[in-house]
Every structure is written in structure tokens, then in C-alpha cells.
Amino acid sequence: MKSYFIQADAVQSPKRKITGRKNLDFSNTQKLKTLSPEETFNLGLEISEHLSSGDVIALIGELGAGKTLLTTGICRGLGFQGEVTSPSYIHVQTYVGPVTIHHIDLYLDRSEEEVYDLGIDEMFDSDSIVIVEWADSFPNLMPNNCWQIEIRWTDEGETVRDILIKPKPVI
Fold first, then answer.
1. pLDDT tens across 102-130, in order?
2. What's the chain look like in SS3?
3. Does the model's pTM come out above 0.85?
4. Which of 43, 110, 150, 151 lies 20 to 30 angstroms, CA to CA, from 69?
């Protein structure tokens, strides 16, 4: 498994060059390891460089695994400079910057009807980037052509994460 290591202080402004980045090839599934919250954030920056208008990211991981932290890195990489928070209780947070990002949290949703009431199908059909935390709660609602990112705790330390990234399929 590759270790993903980037100096957090190497991050510059949106669409910046990141010193030490791995320049990952997202044409294939990647198994990565981050050793710190900074590395997880910086992985989000790297992922943002590979996103296109209308992309959907299905995030999977336990409570506290780093889904919102990775999302924050993605949002920063896409140019949003405001606060990124987990939308657990409000279900959807929309961040407006150079690109619109819908951040959805399905942790507290109990039915597909509740999820549809959020307007998820309209968000999926838009030019926005859509990031869905707890996507595994409703796998049948996720589009077939979405990115899938799984973040897992490890027994290697409190801040170490195993991350599996399956890029959106090429159609």
C-alpha cells in the first residue's frame, strides 16, 4: 500500500502547485495510507485536481474516520475558502465558489424517501460537484458513474488511515 505524504505547509492558494504531491493516477483504483490529518486533507487537494463538473463522490467510512476532513481538502482545492462542516443535522451544505459543491450527509436519514426529499437527484443531474458522506447507507441511490472513496481506521496509530479510491468509471 502506498503511503501518501505531503508537507502541510507546502499548500498554496486554490489550483496551486503542491510540493511533494504524488501525482496519483486516478485512472485505476488506488490503495493509499495517510499518516496524519494533514495528509488526509492534502489527499483531498490532490483529488480535487481530477474532478470534473457534475462529478459525484460517494464517501464511506466510520464516524470520525476523516470524511469531512477529506471533503475540506477537496473544497479548498476547488477554490472554496469558507468553513466546511459536517452537515449531519442539516443534511446538505452548499458551498459556492468557483464551482458549486453540494456536501450531503446521509448519517441520520432513515429512508430513501427522506433522501429524495433533499433533492439529491437534482444535485446529481447538475454541473455541481456532489460529495456524499455515508453513501453506503443508500448505495442504490448513488449514480453508477461516481467516485467511491472508503476511509478506514487502522491499528497503526490514531491518525493513520487506509484509503481506497475507486475513480469514476470511464464511459
1. 999 998 878 888 888 888 899 998 999 99
2. CEEECCCHHHCCCCCCCCCCCCCCCCCCCEEEEECCHHHHHHHHHHHHCCCCCCCEEEEEECCCCCHHHHHHHHHHHCCCCCCCCCCCCCCEEEEECCCEEEEEECCCCCCHHHHHHCCHHHHHCCCCEEEEECHHHCHHHCCCCCEEEEEEECCCCCCCEEEEEECCCCC
3. no
4. 110
